[in-house]
Amino acid sequence: MIMNEELQLRSQKIAASKAASVVYAATRFLLRVFLWSYLRVEVSGKEHLYGKDALIMAPVHRSNLDSILLAPLHKRRMRALAKESLFKLRPFAWYLSALGAFPIRRGSADRESVKIAKTLLEGGATLLVFPEGTRQEGNQIGELFDGTAYLAAKSGVPVVPIGISGSEKAMGAGSRIPKPYKVRICVGSPIPAPDKNSKRSSLSSWTQRLTLELQAVQDAAQVSA
Questions:
Q1: Nearest alpha-carbon partner for 100 in 124, 123, 125
Q2: Can you tell me the distance from the alpha carbon of 205 to that of 26, in angstroms, rounded to the nearest whole number?
Q3: Max CA-CA distance within the chain?
Q4: What is the pLDDT of residues 20-43, one digit of tens each?
Q5: Contact by Cβ (8 Å): 178, 38
Q6: Which domains does the chain have, with CATH numbers?
Q7: pLDDT digits over 47-73, tens only?
């Protein structure tokens, strides 16, 4: 099925508008002042996100809170791929686009998603990617697929592993309102992208490194308790 190009173009136009920049800045400020204070968020390693170059933020995924918790970490707007169905209602679609979300058709081919993400990164974006895919439980990092490695290789952009502890207790599966449970975020050192022409075995080796780095920052987020 062909992607709704009109929806994508509309999203891009909204994201590029001055109004969207103002809305994003205001949302980021409110998250920092209210949500971070409510959850008593502590951050270590934030300096690894400084700079103006494109990068891929690769956090663990334990809660629906994870995306918005990370927004105040970086002054630049995070971009993230989101399922197209979320953009059906225009007011909500406008707000999602202003926050940096970009519509993709759920179940679309990986090649299509990578193409969109690569275009965003080539434009200097900070892209949010969850290497684990869907939400997981517990502190252990499970088996990762090579999607993040492939995207990093094709775009030549470094990947920053991020551990998050407490978000699953603040708002677990099925919850709609966060509880005031302390959250800690640990940002690791950037991992250089694999070579653009890397073979599958090289991508798998790189993914193993990402797994170890993710486990390290996730453990560090726990240890800092």
A1: 125
A2: 41
A3: 48
A4: 999 999 999 999 999 999 999 999
A5: yes
A6: 5-223 (3.40.1130.10)
A7: 999 878 899 999 999 998 999 999 999
